[in-house]
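User: Second chain of the day. Same drill as before.
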Amino acid sequence: MRQKIFLTVITAFFLVGVNAQKLSKTEKKIIKNIEQNNAEAISFLEKVVNINSGTLNLKGVEKVGQEFASAFEDIGFESTWIPMPEEMNRGGHLFAEIKGSKGKKLLLIGHLDTVFEEDSPFQTFEMVNDSIAHAPGGNDMKGGDIIVLYALKALRENGLLNDAQIIVAFTGDEESAGDPLEESRKDLIEAAKRSDIALGFETSTGFNYATVARRGSSDWKVEVEGKRAHSSGIFNEDTGAGAIFEMSRILNGFYTDVKGEDLLTFNPGTLLGGTFVEFDDMTSKGTVFGKTNVVAQKAEVRGGLRFISEEQKERTRDKMREIVANNLPQTTANISFNDSYPAMQPTPGNEALLVKLNEVSLDLQQGEVLAYDPGKRGAADTSFVAKYVDCLDGLGTMGNAAHTPEETVNLNTIEALTKRTALLIYRLIHE
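Assistant: Same format as last time:
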């Protein structure tokens, strides 16, 4: 057994060495430019990290967008700032484009906003050691935006973007998408319809992983009404079960009869029950009034649903509706759903892109790249375009503790990941 493992390792090492010879002279020039520009890339990352761009800081989001717009214009892209309607209370989107007809038409997706608002104590880029930096949004996902910019910069410096068709789309509200989605994602979807392939630069899940599938997400709400009465009469024919028992039945039914499908999860996030209940959707806070000697009149629960396909989503919703409709005595219940992110399914086209990325990685002696488990990834903007183009995501920077005050970005991996991205783009636009 040990001999078999040893031979496998030796074979893998030999193949990596052979693959290294596959890099063309042009690709080696691209790599050299990325190495020369890496210090500049990290400085630019620090600059944009130090501009607060929390989703609700609309001016900050636009300011970061302006920094990237200027940088893209410097390498020959035409940039456009697309503001969102004022009532949406969301930042606009940066689109940068070069137009041509050579090779695959690419859509490169990132986002400008972070989860850290203006009142967050976590605001600045700070080195932890020679390779790791604390950086609000540096990992999720300004580092990914930097990879896009400096991969394209290396290609431009080698005259390799002539007649290419590439759209860069950096949204300003990925962390909390503007409502309605039909408006906030309209321009992204239109860009996808003019493209062949979308590459997403959300946080990497590991140096040797990429994302060929993401689960979609949907919100759900159950509202129950019972008959308010003295508690001494509960369970009798006139009073019935009350709202809280009915809600308990429904949630237990979800748990026992709906869960179990692969990559399907649903979670009740908030639960209120009593004589009177109030819930503020904007703050996700609620209040309840009730007494132990009064049968509960109202109950509400809000939750989330994750799914790998539209078919799975609708099948699950039907099961949930069936359970909700089977009411206990003297109660009524209603369930409603609100779509958020669609699913990005693991299509053959997505898997073919992973094969190409893997070839690039092996040629760079960076090791094999595998598909990451979609059950461990959240939703992202790539999901909105997966219906129209082949997609690959998770191509961004590496780090830890995203969305927390301990978020870090691994600066040592930026150069290698930029090389991988640049060669993938080069090969795609020269197919």
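Residues 23-214+344-429 form a domain with the Aminopeptidase fold (CATH 3.40.630.10).

User: Great, on to the next one.
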